[in-house]
Amino acid sequence: MSNVTLFSQIIHKIDRPLFNNLVAKKQTDKSSKGFNSWTHLVSMLFCHFAKSTSVRDISNGLRSATGNLNHLGVNRAPSKSSISYQNERRDADLFKELYYGLLKRLGQQANQKRVKLRIKVPVYLLDATVISLCLSVFDWATFRRSKGAVKMHTLLEYDGKMPTYVNITKGSVSDNKGAYDIPLQKGAVIVADRYYNDFPMLNVWERKGVYFVILHKHNQSCLPKY
Questions:
Q1: Beta pairing class for 211-214 and 189-192
Q2: Can you list the residues of the chain whose pLDDT is less than 50?
Q3: Domains in the chain: how many in total?
Q4: 222 domain residue, yes or no
Q5: Among 47, 107, 185, 207, which residue's beta carbon has the most beta carbons within 10 A?
């Protein structure tokens, strides 16, 4: 059975016909000498996901994944000199237009009818999700006695459903504690569930000029005293 990596699954989300049309439009494969635009894209995405610090890391990392390069649509790992050469000469607008094309096709707003809000201030959605991990491998990711996890605290803009802030903590960190460092924009509205009903935190938001809509806790019977 083929070993299809998580990275290759992410790469397969990219609309290849869209990319090929952009390559033809920009003519970025002209005189590419084997290191085409697709290989360039895969190399730079690998750079970000692997947190590579040099073109040598990119080349060596892809070379070590020789058995999986076919799943990425790449014939062979590029040399560090090829990566450097094309980074200087290939038109970066190709990747810029690809990003906006994918955003239009893959964004949640593409397939869902949005409720148009009758307010002119930015609206953000705040929530957290638990990502399970193997505790024997990630012993720092404490969550439960026999289970490991991290928690991803995310602030999304309502209009585009794009994250403006992501904070990854141990799974045992409560939702409200993971939200203390979110960027606050004066005049904006933050919408969240009851797990963010933290009066000291909400007091900070109010003093910063941030509006909020938070669900009421079931056992909450009186207003707080600051």
A1: parallel
A2: 1-3, 110
A3: 2
A4: no
A5: 47
CA dist 84 to 34, 180, 206, Å?
14, 41, 49
Domain that holds residue 37: 6-106
- Adjacent-strand bridge partners of 170: 150
Q: What pLDDT score does 50 carry? A: 82
For residue 14, being part of any structural domain is answered with: yes
61 shares a domain with 134: no
pLDDT at residue 115, rounded to an integer: 59
User: What totals of helices (H) and strands (E) does the chain contain, helices first?
Assistant: 7, 6
pTM of the predicted model, to two decimals? Answer: 0.54
Which positions ≥6 away from 93 have C-beta within 8 Å?
A: 26
Q: Please report the pLDDT score of residue 108 as a whole number.
A: 53
Of the residues 106, 138, 168, the one at which a domain ends: 106
The Cα 36–Cα 38 span in angstroms is: 6
